[in-house]
Design brief:
single chain; about 500 residues; mainly alpha; Growth Hormone, Chain: A; globular
Protein backbone atom coordinates (compact mmCIF):
# COMPACT_ATOMS: atom_id res chain seq x y z
CA UNK A 1 0.00 0.00 0.00
CA UNK A 2 1.38 3.41 -0.91
CA UNK A 3 2.69 5.37 1.97
CA UNK A 4 2.34 2.46 4.36
CA UNK A 5 -1.37 3.06 5.01
CA UNK A 6 -3.77 0.29 5.87
CA UNK A 7 -6.78 -0.06 3.64
CA UNK A 8 -8.02 -1.62 0.44
CA UNK A 9 -5.55 -3.57 -1.65
CA UNK A 10 -7.30 -3.39 -5.01
CA UNK A 11 -8.60 -6.35 -7.01
CA UNK A 12 -7.72 -9.49 -5.07
CA UNK A 13 -9.16 -12.32 -7.19
CA UNK A 14 -10.05 -13.15 -10.75
CA UNK A 15 -13.74 -12.97 -11.64
CA UNK A 16 -13.50 -12.71 -15.42
CA UNK A 17 -15.39 -15.95 -16.01
CA UNK A 18 -18.34 -14.49 -14.12
CA UNK A 19 -18.61 -11.36 -16.27
CA UNK A 20 -21.95 -10.98 -18.07
CA UNK A 21 -23.07 -8.74 -20.87
CA UNK A 22 -22.51 -8.13 -24.54
CA UNK A 23 -21.47 -5.42 -26.95
CA UNK A 24 -24.35 -2.98 -27.06
CA UNK A 25 -25.03 -0.27 -29.64
CA UNK A 26 -24.78 2.17 -26.77
CA UNK A 27 -21.16 1.32 -25.98
CA UNK A 28 -20.16 1.18 -29.66
CA UNK A 29 -21.61 4.63 -30.33
CA UNK A 30 -19.97 6.02 -27.19
CA UNK A 31 -16.60 4.65 -28.31
CA UNK A 32 -17.06 6.01 -31.84
CA UNK A 33 -17.77 9.51 -30.55
CA UNK A 34 -14.83 9.40 -28.15
CA UNK A 35 -12.50 8.07 -30.84
CA UNK A 36 -13.00 11.27 -32.83
CA UNK A 37 -10.25 12.56 -30.55
CA UNK A 38 -7.88 10.37 -32.53
CA UNK A 39 -8.89 12.08 -35.78
CA UNK A 40 -7.72 15.40 -34.34
CA UNK A 41 -4.29 13.92 -33.63
CA UNK A 42 -4.15 12.29 -37.04
CA UNK A 43 -5.30 15.34 -38.97
CA UNK A 44 -2.49 17.44 -37.58
CA UNK A 45 0.12 14.76 -38.30
CA UNK A 46 -1.05 14.54 -41.89
CA UNK A 47 -1.58 18.23 -42.53
CA UNK A 48 1.78 19.55 -41.31
CA UNK A 49 4.00 17.94 -43.92
CA UNK A 50 1.78 18.93 -46.82
CA UNK A 51 1.47 22.55 -45.71
CA UNK A 52 5.22 22.91 -45.15
CA UNK A 53 5.84 21.77 -48.72
CA UNK A 54 3.53 24.43 -50.23
CA UNK A 55 5.41 27.35 -51.77
CA UNK A 56 2.93 30.12 -50.73
CA UNK A 57 3.14 28.98 -47.10
CA UNK A 58 6.95 28.82 -47.18
CA UNK A 59 7.25 32.16 -48.95
CA UNK A 60 5.07 33.89 -46.32
CA UNK A 61 6.47 32.37 -43.12
CA UNK A 62 9.80 30.73 -44.04
CA UNK A 63 11.27 32.65 -47.00
CA UNK A 64 14.77 31.22 -46.42
CA UNK A 65 13.49 27.69 -46.95
CA UNK A 66 11.44 28.81 -49.94
CA UNK A 67 14.47 30.26 -51.72
CA UNK A 68 16.68 27.29 -50.83
CA UNK A 69 14.06 24.82 -52.06
CA UNK A 70 13.68 26.53 -55.43
CA UNK A 71 17.32 27.41 -56.03
CA UNK A 72 18.30 23.79 -56.67
CA UNK A 73 21.73 24.37 -55.16
CA UNK A 74 21.39 22.28 -51.98
CA UNK A 75 21.72 18.56 -51.42
CA UNK A 76 18.57 16.50 -51.86
CA UNK A 77 18.74 15.68 -48.18
CA UNK A 78 19.29 19.24 -46.92
CA UNK A 79 16.96 21.56 -48.83
CA UNK A 80 14.43 21.69 -45.96
CA UNK A 81 16.95 21.77 -43.09
CA UNK A 82 15.66 24.73 -41.07
CA UNK A 83 15.05 24.80 -37.31
CA UNK A 84 12.28 27.39 -37.62
CA UNK A 85 10.35 25.19 -40.01
CA UNK A 86 10.89 22.22 -37.71
CA UNK A 87 9.63 24.31 -34.77
CA UNK A 88 6.37 24.94 -36.64
CA UNK A 89 5.72 21.20 -36.52
CA UNK A 90 7.27 20.39 -33.14
CA UNK A 91 5.87 23.26 -31.03
CA UNK A 92 2.48 21.57 -31.00
CA UNK A 93 3.90 18.44 -29.40
CA UNK A 94 5.85 20.32 -26.75
CA UNK A 95 2.63 22.10 -25.75
CA UNK A 96 0.81 18.77 -25.77
CA UNK A 97 3.41 17.28 -23.45
CA UNK A 98 2.77 19.96 -20.81
CA UNK A 99 -1.00 19.79 -21.31
CA UNK A 100 -1.08 16.01 -20.82
CA UNK A 101 0.37 16.40 -17.32
CA UNK A 102 -2.14 19.13 -16.47
CA UNK A 103 -4.93 16.93 -17.85
CA UNK A 104 -4.25 14.06 -15.43
CA UNK A 105 -5.86 15.55 -12.28
CA UNK A 106 -8.75 16.90 -14.37
CA UNK A 107 -9.36 13.47 -15.90
CA UNK A 108 -9.27 11.83 -12.49
CA UNK A 109 -11.25 14.38 -10.46
CA UNK A 110 -13.78 15.60 -13.02
CA UNK A 111 -14.02 12.63 -15.36
CA UNK A 112 -12.86 11.47 -18.77
CA UNK A 113 -15.61 13.50 -20.48
CA UNK A 114 -14.32 16.78 -19.04
CA UNK A 115 -10.89 16.28 -20.57
CA UNK A 116 -12.35 15.24 -23.91
CA UNK A 117 -14.43 18.43 -24.04
CA UNK A 118 -11.48 20.62 -22.97
CA UNK A 119 -9.36 19.05 -25.70
CA UNK A 120 -11.96 19.73 -28.38
CA UNK A 121 -12.35 23.39 -27.40
CA UNK A 122 -8.59 24.01 -27.33
CA UNK A 123 -8.13 22.41 -30.72
CA UNK A 124 -10.94 24.49 -32.17
CA UNK A 125 -9.26 27.70 -31.00
CA UNK A 126 -5.92 26.55 -32.42
CA UNK A 127 -7.43 25.73 -35.82
CA UNK A 128 -8.97 29.20 -36.02
CA UNK A 129 -5.70 30.94 -35.13
CA UNK A 130 -3.72 28.92 -37.70
CA UNK A 131 -6.19 29.53 -40.51
CA UNK A 132 -6.17 33.30 -39.82
CA UNK A 133 -2.42 33.62 -39.13
CA UNK A 134 -0.76 36.74 -40.54
CA UNK A 135 2.63 36.32 -38.85
CA UNK A 136 4.81 33.63 -37.33
CA UNK A 137 3.77 34.50 -33.74
CA UNK A 138 0.11 33.93 -34.48
CA UNK A 139 0.99 30.74 -36.33
CA UNK A 140 2.98 29.30 -33.41
CA UNK A 141 0.33 30.39 -30.88
CA UNK A 142 -2.24 28.45 -32.88
CA UNK A 143 0.04 25.42 -32.86
CA UNK A 144 0.36 25.67 -29.08
CA UNK A 145 -3.42 25.66 -28.66
CA UNK A 146 -3.62 22.65 -30.96
CA UNK A 147 -1.04 20.99 -28.73
CA UNK A 148 -3.12 21.66 -25.63
CA UNK A 149 -6.08 20.00 -27.36
CA UNK A 150 -4.02 16.97 -28.31
CA UNK A 151 -2.59 16.69 -24.79
CA UNK A 152 -6.06 16.55 -23.24
CA UNK A 153 -7.56 14.34 -25.95
CA UNK A 154 -4.75 11.79 -26.03
CA UNK A 155 -4.78 11.61 -22.24
CA UNK A 156 -8.51 10.98 -21.88
CA UNK A 157 -9.71 9.17 -25.01
CA UNK A 158 -7.69 5.91 -24.74
CA UNK A 159 -8.67 5.65 -21.07
CA UNK A 160 -12.31 6.19 -21.94
CA UNK A 161 -12.25 3.52 -24.62
CA UNK A 162 -10.49 0.95 -22.40
CA UNK A 163 -12.90 1.47 -19.53
CA UNK A 164 -16.07 1.36 -21.63
CA UNK A 165 -15.17 -1.71 -23.71
CA UNK A 166 -15.93 -5.29 -22.55
CA UNK A 167 -12.76 -7.26 -21.82
CA UNK A 168 -13.02 -9.67 -24.75
CA UNK A 169 -13.26 -6.82 -27.29
CA UNK A 170 -11.25 -4.13 -25.52
CA UNK A 171 -8.41 -4.29 -28.03
CA UNK A 172 -10.67 -3.79 -31.05
CA UNK A 173 -12.76 -1.01 -29.50
CA UNK A 174 -9.72 0.74 -28.08
CA UNK A 175 -8.26 0.79 -31.57
CA UNK A 176 -11.06 3.08 -32.63
CA UNK A 177 -8.67 5.77 -31.43
CA UNK A 178 -5.95 4.64 -33.82
CA UNK A 179 -8.43 4.08 -36.64
CA UNK A 180 -9.68 7.63 -36.19
CA UNK A 181 -6.06 8.80 -36.13
CA UNK A 182 -5.31 7.09 -39.43
CA UNK A 183 -8.53 8.40 -40.96
CA UNK A 184 -7.45 11.86 -39.84
CA UNK A 185 -4.05 11.41 -41.48
CA UNK A 186 -5.57 10.17 -44.72
CA UNK A 187 -8.13 12.97 -44.75
CA UNK A 188 -5.37 15.52 -44.19
CA UNK A 189 -3.28 14.20 -47.08
CA UNK A 190 -6.30 14.30 -49.37
CA UNK A 191 -7.07 17.86 -48.25
CA UNK A 192 -3.47 18.88 -48.94
CA UNK A 193 -3.62 17.26 -52.36
CA UNK A 194 -6.69 19.34 -53.17
CA UNK A 195 -5.75 22.65 -51.56
CA UNK A 196 -2.28 22.66 -53.12
CA UNK A 197 -4.06 23.72 -56.31
CA UNK A 198 -5.80 26.63 -54.56
CA UNK A 199 -2.91 29.06 -54.54
CA UNK A 200 -2.07 31.22 -52.72
CA UNK A 201 -4.52 30.57 -49.86
CA UNK A 202 -4.91 26.78 -49.99
CA UNK A 203 -2.74 26.29 -46.92
CA UNK A 204 -5.22 28.33 -44.84
CA UNK A 205 -8.03 25.94 -45.80
CA UNK A 206 -5.86 22.94 -44.91
CA UNK A 207 -5.13 24.31 -41.44
CA UNK A 208 -8.63 25.65 -40.84
CA UNK A 209 -10.42 22.38 -41.61
CA UNK A 210 -8.95 20.99 -38.38
CA UNK A 211 -11.96 22.71 -36.79
CA UNK A 212 -14.29 20.00 -38.17
CA UNK A 213 -13.13 17.09 -35.95
CA UNK A 214 -12.67 19.57 -33.09
CA UNK A 215 -16.35 20.54 -33.26
CA UNK A 216 -17.42 16.88 -33.47
CA UNK A 217 -15.27 16.00 -30.45
CA UNK A 218 -16.53 18.94 -28.38
CA UNK A 219 -20.23 18.51 -29.15
CA UNK A 220 -20.04 14.72 -28.91
CA UNK A 221 -18.31 14.99 -25.55
CA UNK A 222 -21.37 16.62 -24.01
CA UNK A 223 -23.48 13.59 -24.94
CA UNK A 224 -21.05 10.90 -23.76
CA UNK A 225 -21.73 9.01 -20.53
CA UNK A 226 -18.97 8.99 -17.94
CA UNK A 227 -17.21 5.64 -17.52
CA UNK A 228 -18.49 3.47 -14.64
CA UNK A 229 -14.90 3.06 -13.39
CA UNK A 230 -14.47 6.80 -12.98
CA UNK A 231 -17.91 7.25 -11.43
CA UNK A 232 -17.05 4.72 -8.73
CA UNK A 233 -13.64 6.32 -8.28
CA UNK A 234 -15.32 9.68 -7.67
CA UNK A 235 -17.85 8.26 -5.21
CA UNK A 236 -20.98 7.73 -7.36
CA UNK A 237 -21.64 3.96 -7.02
CA UNK A 238 -25.33 4.05 -7.98
CA UNK A 239 -24.67 6.05 -11.14
CA UNK A 240 -21.69 3.78 -11.92
CA UNK A 241 -23.86 0.67 -11.72
CA UNK A 242 -26.56 2.29 -13.85
CA UNK A 243 -24.06 3.14 -16.62
CA UNK A 244 -22.45 -0.30 -16.42
CA UNK A 245 -25.81 -2.05 -16.80
CA UNK A 246 -26.63 0.15 -19.77
CA UNK A 247 -23.37 -0.41 -21.66
CA UNK A 248 -23.36 -4.16 -20.95
CA UNK A 249 -27.06 -4.62 -21.75
CA UNK A 250 -27.78 -6.62 -18.60
CA UNK A 251 -28.47 -6.15 -14.90
CA UNK A 252 -26.16 -9.07 -14.04
CA UNK A 253 -23.03 -7.00 -13.57
CA UNK A 254 -22.12 -8.01 -9.99
CA UNK A 255 -18.75 -9.60 -10.84
CA UNK A 256 -17.49 -6.74 -12.99
CA UNK A 257 -18.88 -4.20 -10.52
CA UNK A 258 -17.09 -5.98 -7.66
CA UNK A 259 -13.78 -5.62 -9.50
CA UNK A 260 -14.48 -1.94 -10.13
CA UNK A 261 -15.54 -1.40 -6.53
CA UNK A 262 -12.38 -2.96 -5.12
CA UNK A 263 -10.26 -0.91 -7.52
CA UNK A 264 -12.15 2.29 -6.71
CA UNK A 265 -11.74 1.78 -2.95
CA UNK A 266 -8.00 1.74 -3.42
CA UNK A 267 -8.15 4.61 -5.91
CA UNK A 268 -10.02 6.84 -3.45
CA UNK A 269 -7.39 6.15 -0.79
CA UNK A 270 -4.57 7.32 -3.06
CA UNK A 271 -4.05 11.08 -2.83
CA UNK A 272 -0.88 11.32 -4.92
CA UNK A 273 -1.11 8.93 -7.91
CA UNK A 274 2.13 10.17 -9.48
CA UNK A 275 3.95 9.24 -6.26
CA UNK A 276 2.09 5.95 -5.97
CA UNK A 277 3.04 4.97 -9.50
CA UNK A 278 6.65 4.61 -8.30
CA UNK A 279 5.70 1.84 -5.88
CA UNK A 280 7.05 -1.66 -6.69
CA UNK A 281 3.56 -3.01 -7.49
CA UNK A 282 3.33 -0.44 -10.31
CA UNK A 283 6.89 -0.82 -11.62
CA UNK A 284 6.04 -2.96 -14.67
CA UNK A 285 3.29 -0.57 -15.78
CA UNK A 286 5.57 2.43 -15.33
CA UNK A 287 8.29 0.83 -17.45
CA UNK A 288 5.82 0.01 -20.23
CA UNK A 289 4.25 3.49 -20.01
CA UNK A 290 7.67 4.94 -20.80
CA UNK A 291 9.05 2.45 -23.30
CA UNK A 292 5.95 1.66 -25.39
CA UNK A 293 5.28 5.26 -26.55
CA UNK A 294 9.00 5.98 -26.90
CA UNK A 295 9.51 2.95 -29.14
CA UNK A 296 6.36 3.77 -31.11
CA UNK A 297 7.91 7.08 -32.18
CA UNK A 298 11.41 5.62 -32.65
CA UNK A 299 10.07 3.40 -35.41
CA UNK A 300 10.47 6.53 -37.55
CA UNK A 301 6.83 6.55 -38.57
CA UNK A 302 6.27 10.17 -37.60
CA UNK A 303 9.17 11.25 -39.76
CA UNK A 304 7.41 9.71 -42.73
CA UNK A 305 3.95 11.00 -41.79
CA UNK A 306 5.00 14.52 -40.74
CA UNK A 307 7.29 15.11 -43.63
CA UNK A 308 6.00 12.72 -46.28
CA UNK A 309 5.81 15.34 -49.07
CA UNK A 310 9.10 16.86 -47.88
CA UNK A 311 10.72 13.44 -47.72
CA UNK A 312 9.51 12.41 -51.15
CA UNK A 313 10.64 15.74 -52.62
CA UNK A 314 14.04 15.12 -51.03
CA UNK A 315 14.13 11.85 -52.96
CA UNK A 316 13.61 13.77 -56.19
CA UNK A 317 9.82 13.55 -56.57
CA UNK A 318 8.07 16.61 -57.98
CA UNK A 319 5.56 18.55 -55.85
CA UNK A 320 2.41 16.80 -57.06
CA UNK A 321 4.08 13.38 -57.09
CA UNK A 322 5.25 13.91 -53.51
CA UNK A 323 1.74 14.78 -52.34
CA UNK A 324 0.29 11.83 -54.24
CA UNK A 325 2.80 9.49 -52.58
CA UNK A 326 1.89 10.84 -49.13
CA UNK A 327 -1.81 10.24 -49.91
CA UNK A 328 -0.93 6.65 -50.78
CA UNK A 329 0.94 6.07 -47.51
CA UNK A 330 -1.97 7.62 -45.58
CA UNK A 331 -4.42 5.25 -47.26
CA UNK A 332 -2.21 2.24 -46.47
CA UNK A 333 -1.97 3.28 -42.81
CA UNK A 334 -5.73 3.61 -42.56
CA UNK A 335 -6.39 0.23 -44.15
CA UNK A 336 -3.78 -1.58 -42.07
CA UNK A 337 -5.44 -0.45 -38.85
CA UNK A 338 -8.50 -2.46 -39.87
CA UNK A 339 -6.27 -5.55 -39.97
CA UNK A 340 -5.24 -4.91 -36.37
CA UNK A 341 -8.82 -4.35 -35.23
CA UNK A 342 -9.83 -7.69 -36.77
CA UNK A 343 -6.95 -9.69 -35.27
CA UNK A 344 -5.84 -8.09 -31.98
CA UNK A 345 -8.35 -9.92 -29.76
CA UNK A 346 -7.70 -13.20 -31.57
CA UNK A 347 -3.94 -13.48 -32.00
CA UNK A 348 -3.00 -11.15 -29.16
CA UNK A 349 -0.83 -8.07 -28.70
CA UNK A 350 2.58 -9.72 -28.59
CA UNK A 351 2.29 -11.55 -31.92
CA UNK A 352 1.28 -8.37 -33.75
CA UNK A 353 4.02 -6.26 -32.17
CA UNK A 354 6.81 -8.76 -32.86
CA UNK A 355 5.80 -9.62 -36.44
CA UNK A 356 5.23 -5.94 -37.25
CA UNK A 357 8.64 -5.06 -35.86
CA UNK A 358 10.39 -7.64 -38.04
CA UNK A 359 8.65 -6.37 -41.19
CA UNK A 360 9.54 -2.75 -40.37
CA UNK A 361 13.21 -3.60 -39.87
CA UNK A 362 13.38 -5.24 -43.30
CA UNK A 363 11.68 -2.26 -44.95
CA UNK A 364 13.87 0.39 -43.30
CA UNK A 365 17.05 -1.44 -44.29
CA UNK A 366 15.79 -1.93 -47.85
CA UNK A 367 15.00 1.80 -48.28
CA UNK A 368 18.43 2.74 -46.90
CA UNK A 369 20.19 0.40 -49.32
CA UNK A 370 18.24 1.64 -52.35
CA UNK A 371 18.74 5.32 -51.55
CA UNK A 372 22.40 4.78 -50.72
CA UNK A 373 23.00 3.08 -54.07
CA UNK A 374 20.70 5.05 -56.38
CA UNK A 375 19.99 8.55 -55.02
CA UNK A 376 22.83 11.03 -55.64
CA UNK A 377 23.33 14.08 -53.45
CA UNK A 378 21.68 16.07 -56.20
CA UNK A 379 19.42 14.80 -58.96
CA UNK A 380 16.57 12.34 -58.81
CA UNK A 381 15.80 8.66 -58.45
CA UNK A 382 14.95 6.85 -61.64
CA UNK A 383 11.27 6.19 -62.20
CA UNK A 384 11.61 2.47 -61.55
CA UNK A 385 13.46 2.93 -58.28
CA UNK A 386 11.03 5.64 -57.19
CA UNK A 387 8.16 3.19 -57.53
CA UNK A 388 10.06 0.56 -55.55
CA UNK A 389 10.95 3.02 -52.76
CA UNK A 390 7.33 4.12 -52.40
CA UNK A 391 6.20 0.47 -52.38
CA UNK A 392 8.67 -0.45 -49.63
CA UNK A 393 7.69 2.60 -47.56
CA UNK A 394 4.07 1.52 -47.93
CA UNK A 395 5.00 -1.94 -46.63
CA UNK A 396 6.67 -0.27 -43.67
CA UNK A 397 3.56 1.83 -43.00
CA UNK A 398 1.41 -1.30 -43.38
CA UNK A 399 3.39 -3.11 -40.69
CA UNK A 400 3.27 -0.13 -38.35
CA UNK A 401 -0.47 0.26 -38.91
CA UNK A 402 -1.35 -3.20 -37.65
CA UNK A 403 1.21 -3.37 -34.87
CA UNK A 404 2.94 -0.51 -33.08
CA UNK A 405 0.59 2.17 -34.35
CA UNK A 406 -2.56 1.09 -32.50
CA UNK A 407 -0.91 -1.07 -29.85
CA UNK A 408 1.45 1.69 -28.76
CA UNK A 409 -1.70 3.34 -27.38
CA UNK A 410 -3.78 0.28 -26.51
CA UNK A 411 -1.31 -1.56 -24.27
CA UNK A 412 -0.44 1.37 -21.93
CA UNK A 413 -4.11 2.34 -21.61
CA UNK A 414 -5.17 -1.11 -20.39
CA UNK A 415 -2.43 -2.11 -17.92
CA UNK A 416 -2.76 0.41 -15.07
CA UNK A 417 -4.87 -0.11 -11.94
CA UNK A 418 -7.60 2.46 -11.42
CA UNK A 419 -5.73 4.44 -8.75
CA UNK A 420 -2.87 5.31 -11.11
CA UNK A 421 -4.67 5.03 -14.45
CA UNK A 422 -4.96 8.74 -15.24
CA UNK A 423 -1.40 9.38 -14.05
CA UNK A 424 -0.12 6.45 -16.09
CA UNK A 425 -1.90 7.64 -19.21
CA UNK A 426 -0.44 11.12 -18.67
CA UNK A 427 3.05 9.61 -18.57
CA UNK A 428 2.32 7.63 -21.74
CA UNK A 429 1.09 10.70 -23.58
CA UNK A 430 3.90 12.89 -22.23
CA UNK A 431 6.59 10.42 -23.34
CA UNK A 432 4.91 10.02 -26.73
CA UNK A 433 4.77 13.78 -27.26
CA UNK A 434 8.31 14.30 -25.91
CA UNK A 435 9.75 11.88 -28.45
CA UNK A 436 7.43 13.21 -31.14
CA UNK A 437 8.73 16.70 -30.41
CA UNK A 438 12.35 15.52 -30.47
CA UNK A 439 11.96 13.68 -33.79
CA UNK A 440 9.93 16.48 -35.38
CA UNK A 441 12.51 19.08 -34.36
CA UNK A 442 15.57 17.05 -35.32
CA UNK A 443 14.46 15.00 -38.34
CA UNK A 444 15.29 17.56 -41.04
CA UNK A 445 18.76 18.04 -39.54
CA UNK A 446 19.26 14.30 -39.13
CA UNK A 447 18.19 13.73 -42.73
CA UNK A 448 20.74 16.30 -43.86
CA UNK A 449 23.52 14.77 -41.72
CA UNK A 450 22.84 11.04 -42.00
CA UNK A 451 21.26 11.07 -45.47
CA UNK A 452 20.04 7.53 -46.29
CA UNK A 453 21.52 6.38 -42.96
CA UNK A 454 18.51 7.86 -41.18
CA UNK A 455 16.58 4.71 -42.13
CA UNK A 456 19.26 2.48 -40.59
CA UNK A 457 19.09 4.62 -37.43
CA UNK A 458 15.39 3.84 -37.05
CA UNK A 459 15.89 0.17 -38.01
CA UNK A 460 18.23 -0.22 -35.03
CA UNK A 461 15.60 1.09 -32.64
CA UNK A 462 12.95 -1.21 -34.10
CA UNK A 463 15.19 -4.22 -33.51
CA UNK A 464 15.65 -3.18 -29.87
CA UNK A 465 11.95 -2.66 -29.23
CA UNK A 466 11.01 -5.99 -30.83
CA UNK A 467 13.32 -7.74 -28.37
CA UNK A 468 11.82 -5.69 -25.53
CA UNK A 469 8.34 -6.97 -26.34
CA UNK A 470 9.56 -10.53 -26.60
CA UNK A 471 11.10 -10.48 -23.12
CA UNK A 472 9.08 -8.01 -21.05
CA UNK A 473 5.48 -7.67 -22.30
CA UNK A 474 2.97 -10.23 -20.98
CA UNK A 475 -0.02 -11.04 -23.14
CA UNK A 476 -2.98 -8.83 -22.15
CA UNK A 477 -5.54 -10.27 -24.57
CA UNK A 478 -8.86 -10.96 -22.84
CA UNK A 479 -7.72 -9.84 -19.38
CA UNK A 480 -10.31 -7.62 -17.65
CA UNK A 481 -8.87 -4.18 -17.13
CA UNK A 482 -9.32 -4.20 -13.34
CA UNK A 483 -7.64 -7.63 -13.08
CA UNK A 484 -4.60 -6.67 -15.15
CA UNK A 485 -2.64 -6.10 -11.93
CA UNK A 486 -2.67 -9.87 -11.34
CA UNK A 487 -0.81 -10.61 -14.58
CA UNK A 488 2.53 -9.27 -13.40
CA UNK A 489 2.86 -11.96 -10.73
CA UNK A 490 2.74 -14.59 -13.49
CA UNK A 491 5.44 -13.08 -15.71
CA UNK A 492 8.92 -14.62 -15.54
CA UNK A 493 10.63 -11.27 -14.94
CA UNK A 494 8.09 -8.96 -13.29
CA UNK A 495 7.13 -11.49 -10.60
CA UNK A 496 10.61 -10.89 -9.14
CA UNK A 497 9.76 -7.20 -8.63
CA UNK A 498 6.06 -6.87 -7.79
CA UNK A 499 4.75 -7.96 -4.39
CA UNK A 500 2.86 -11.27 -4.44
CA UNK A 501 -0.90 -11.03 -5.06
CA UNK A 502 -3.58 -13.42 -3.81
CA UNK A 503 -4.59 -14.98 -7.13
CA UNK A 504 -6.04 -18.23 -8.30
CA UNK A 505 -3.04 -19.99 -9.83
CA UNK A 506 -5.18 -22.25 -11.99
CA UNK A 507 -6.62 -19.33 -13.95
CA UNK A 508 -4.58 -18.03 -16.87
CA UNK A 509 -5.39 -15.56 -19.62
CA UNK A 510 -2.54 -16.48 -21.91
CA UNK A 511 1.16 -16.87 -22.06
CA UNK A 512 3.13 -14.68 -19.63
Amino acid sequence: MAGGTIGPVGVSKERAKEYQGKVTPYVVMACLVAAIGGSIFGYDIGISGGVTSMDPFLEKFFPTVYHKKNSGSDSNYCKYDNQGLAAFTSSLYLAGLVASIVASPITRSYGRRASIICGGISFLVGAALNAAAVNIIMLILGRIMLGVGIGFGNQAVPLYLSEMAPAHLRGALNMMFQLATTLGIFTATMVNYGTERLQPWGWRLSLGLAAVPAVLMTVGGFFLPETPNNLLERGFPDEGRRVLEKIRGTSRVEAELADMDEASQLAMSIKHPFKNILEPRNRPQLVLAVFMPAFQILTGINSILFYAPVLFQSMGFKDRAALYSSVLTGAVLCGSTLISIATVDRVGRRALLISGGIQMIVCQVAVAVMLGMKLPDSGELSKDYSVVVVAVICLFVLAFGWSWGPLGWTVPSEIFPLETRSAGQSITVAVNLLFTFAIAQSFLSLLCSLKFGIFLFFAGWIALMTLFVGFFLPETKGVPIEEMILQWGKHWFWKKIVPPSPIDDDVSYGKP
